Amino acid sequence: EFIPKCRTCRRQAREQSGQGDHHEGLSSDEELTPTEVGEFQKSRDNVLEDSRKIFEDVHADFCDIRKILLKFQEWKEKFPDTYCDAYISFCLPKLLNPLIRVQLISWNPLEQNFTELEEMPWFRAIEEFSDAENVSESK
């Protein structure tokens, strides 16, 4: 079995220093020091805290995806001509994008207990809205 010389040297250095937490197959260059892990966690916590403040001063009707989609559904039912003329189906992704991105900031699919996208409230709201649109179009 061929093992590059640099890998052998790093393994020997780990064995001599008593570091037993290395997993074979992972590069020690990719391992983070405790200081780096702490800095990353602090930075992540700051981003998450800032993300909670983004919609603090926004009226609840305009920062909740379900409520926004309800307004569009009402518009479609009351004024179908203007709704179609406004090309709402093309506008909604751009309108909802910032709201969804804020909700996905803390989402990590690599974590063991992550939430599936299909289970997230924003996904279900969009799915219900799409189903309602399809039903009304079939009428």
Automatic annotation (TrEMBL):
Pfam families assigned: GCFC
Keyword Nucleus: yes
First-listed, main subcellular location of the protein, grouped into a coarse class: nucleus
Subcellular location field: Nucleus
Keyword list, A-Z: Nucleus
GCF C-terminal domain mapped to chain residues: 66-128
Gene Ontology biological process terms in this record: mRNA splicing, via spliceosome
Molecular function via GO: DNA binding
Record protein name field: GCFC2 factor
Organism in which the protein naturally occurs: Erithacus rubecula (European robin)
